[in-house]
Amino acid sequence: MSRENWNGDAGEVRGDARPSVCVVGLGYIGLPTAIFLAAGGHTVLGVDIQPERVAAVNSGALPVDEPGLDAMFETAVRGGRLRASTAVGPADAFFICVPTPSRPSARYEGEEAELGAVQAAARAVARALRPGNLVVLESTVPPGTTDGLVRAILEESGLTVHRDGDDAAGAFYLAHCPERVIPGRIAHELVHNDRVIGGSSRAAAERAATLYRTFVRGEIALTDATTAEMVKLMENTFRDVNIALANEFANLCERLGIDVWEAIRLANRHPRVTIHRPGPGVGGHCIPVDPWFIVERAPEEAPLIRQARRVNGAMPHRVVDRALALLGQATAWPARVAALGLTYKADVDDVRESPALEVVAGLLARGMDVAVHDPFVPPERCARLEFPGQPREDGAAGKLACSRSALEAADGADLLLFLVPHSAFRQLTPAAAAARLRQPLVFDACGALDSAAAAAWRAAGFRVARLGVGDAALRAGADRSQPAPVAPGRDGESGGR
């Protein structure tokens, strides 16, 4: 590809020409980014290691379920602006948007980044790299990865990264621009959210900013690559720590006989206090993973971050233990639980790192039969999911059933367990549930029922337990008519992720 599409000093596009782009990774972030770049006038090659995803894109079938992308995707493919391949090809700019999961660390108790996909993508880009090309890493990584690991791999091409004051001849430009969108709102947030771009040089950051400005309407702040990496990790760690605080409040309130939802509602009336929502854990591809990327760089300097991860990581086990205690000795075994919700947050189809999966696995491992239903996870997909820890080696694991409705899941169940506060679950009435359940027992582990709804279920003859509400509060009738305020994006979700 020619460098003539760029103004080498300011990183601006010359004339009407727009740099060609190769996006490596066509997942939740890469494909929407490719679609918006194509809509902004760039010719885009999308690359993915999954042939079926490549075939879907080239046939005009959008392989991600995300509102607001369909029309732009169809226009981009039909107009020849977007095509897909399993191989990286020449381009003026390369975007690396591949997953960065975590794995157990051998150096400390916790996890660290698994950067295999980033390394493979960087090596593929290095083979196509030409002088003047721009490489943007969007994948979330530990601080120092862009200017360390990724730069070193790209320089295996024989080119060198551009630094401030260097001659541009024979150099490539390297930048990090972390994604900060949330599933269900990706199309909106890719356009309207502010972006932070860190470059190997000022020129690299400016070139990247030029590309993003073809579709980003939010403000774009420029910095160095390592700072940009840290910014993304700080954003999600902030939320993880604060969710851990909310979960710890919930645990304390259960012990002290207090309604945590009422306490949070009142505490949040303070003008400088916004306590997050407690829940059965933290899910998504960002919040439960990214804090470890900070920890691995300096474990001894991050005790608070590590403890927050422990608190949030323990919540699914607490939910399982309480469910077992609620069922008690009076229940005929094997007990049957109707578990409502599998995704990591409400009203999306994303199950990555979902604590609901861990709760279901824990129930199965304790010998309970579990019927699950999620309006965003059809039974066919549910049957293919892997539930961590299931089955137990001694053969005592319960049986899993994937149901097509909440009422089907409730049929013959001893406990109705809310794990995700999907809007659809508000349509489930106590009368309809009572006709299906074997015993009138409800456990809301996610805030699906506000205080008024919980009172309505009790009035219908149900015993209702709620996460963060102690037995003394239940006996005293401590529920209030007003639910705790819910701030968008402040629950146990991704969306820095």
At a glance:
The protein has 497 residues and is α/β, with parallel strands linked by helices. It has helices at 30-39, 51-58, 70-78, 116-128, 146-154, 186-192, 202-212, 225-256, 260-267, 290-295, 303-327, 355-365, 379-382, 406-410, 430-434, 451-459, 471-475, and strands at residues 21-24, 44-47, 82-85, 93-96, 102-104, 111-113, 134-137, 160-161, 171-176, 195-199, 220-224, 336-340, 369-373, 400-402, 415-418, 441-444, 463-466.
Description:
α1 (30-39) packs across α3 (70-78), α4 (116-128) packs across α5 and α11 crosses α12 (355-365). Mean pLDDT is 90; it is low at 6-16 and 477-497. β12 (336-340), α12 (355-365) and β13 (369-373) form a beta-alpha-beta unit. The longest helix is centred in the middle third of the chain and has 32 residues, at 225-256. 36% of the residues lie in helices and 14% in strands. The protein has helices at 30-39, 51-58, 70-78, 116-128, 146-154, 186-192, 202-212, 225-256, 260-267, 290-295, 303-327, 355-365, 379-382, 406-410, 430-434, 451-459, 471-475; strands at residues 21-24, 44-47, 82-85, 93-96, 102-104, 111-113, 134-137, 160-161, 171-176, 195-199, 220-224, 336-340, 369-373, 400-402, 415-418, 441-444, 463-466. Strands 1, 2, 3, 4, 7, 8, 9, 10 and 11 form a 9-stranded mixed β-sheet that branches. Strands 14-13-12-15-16-17 form a 6-stranded parallel β-sheet, with helices on both faces. The chain has a two-stranded antiparallel ribbon with strand order 5-6. With 497 residues, the protein is α/β, with parallel strands linked by helices. The protein contains 17 helices and 17 strands.
